[in-house]
Amino acid sequence: MTYANRPTILTGDRTTGPLHLGHYVGSLRARVQLQHEAQQFLLLADTQALTDNVGRHRKVTENVIEVALDYLAVGIDPEKSTILIQSQVPELAELSQYLLNLVTVARLERNPTIKEEIRLRGFERDIPAGFLTYPVSQAADITAFRATHVPVGDDQLPMIEQTNELVRRFNHTVEQPVLVECQAVLSNVTRLPGIDGKAKMSKSLGNAITLSASPDEITKAVNDMYTDPCHLRVSDPGQVEGNVVFAFLDAFEPDVDKVSELKSHYRRGGLGDSVVKRMLDERLQSLIEPIRARRRELADDRGEVVSILRRGTMRAREAAALTLSQVKGALGLSYF
Ligand code: TRP
């Protein structure tokens, strides 16, 4: 398989739940565009999700289909992009095994994202070894497909850095340029806050709007959105910073002039929350409506979705096997 000079992109999502508007703004929207410009692999990271979901394996495996439905519903075209299931590409696990020898425990413990996740999950010193080493498995994902570009949020930058360290270390060890370094592509949209005003939209925090939200759920979420607690009367001047409704309008309303007019009106006073919320509700309804409809259609044809995943995974295996055979060859692991 040759990809000429098109960049190769790898993206991944842990399959712990269906995707939400935060994912849409942060990555999905861009991926739909990128599939025309690049060779794109979308990895359903079930193996990675298992590293901190011991005992919740059902949740992880059931959500593989949910995330795949989200991809397809927003417009990922399986003819243009390759959707694969991480656990079904054993070459990734095998490559991880070799890369694991090239990183120290001390280095793994220094990864700031891992540190933060350990803190959040309260693992203290009882860290599953697979969790501590998932950045290495992620490096295997990236290098197996010779990804040149990896679109990520800023929390994933340490993973890219660690991947490139492993690439250099591997190539230096075997004295051949077998693996390729990659480049992080940071999305230029600021992170979408949760409807409660918390910095991050997240399903586990219960502040998310999913891509399959019903019209009523959308309206309720918009009505519940945190605005400016001091904006009591319509005539009061209101604050736009930290106001979730405006953060959403920034993310979803293409008419930038209209948004900036609304903001100054709100700041001056005389613009009620309910008016702005109604506008946002309309925006989100028209955004999600076709996604929800397409998602439902696909969900009714599960066999077709499974077959898309099987084809994508097979295609991905071919690409990964090629890299793995070069890696093994360079290490001298070719006995027969
Ligand atoms: N770590 C990513 C997340 O938190 C998922 C992921 C797994 C990934 N492998 C990847 C992202 C490779 C980019 C590249 O969801």
Automatic annotation (TrEMBL):
InterPro entries: aa-tRNA-synth_Ic, Rossmann-like_a/b/a_fold, Trp-tRNA-ligase, Trp-tRNA_synthetase. It catalyses: tRNA(Trp) + L-tryptophan + ATP = L-tryptophyl-tRNA(Trp) + AMP + diphosphate + H(+). Keywords: Aminoacyl-tRNA synthetase, ATP-binding, Ligase, Nucleotide-binding, Protein biosynthesis. It is an enzyme of class 6 (ligase). One of its GO terms (biological process) is tryptophanyl-tRNA aminoacylation. GO terms for molecular function: ATP binding; tryptophan-tRNA ligase activity. Its EC number is 6.1.1.2. Coiled coil: none annotated. GO terms for cellular component: cytosol. Belongs to the class-I aminoacyl-tRNA synthetase family. NCBIfam families: trpS (TIGR00233). This is Tryptophan--tRNA ligase. It comes from Trinickia dabaoshanensis. The gene is trpS.
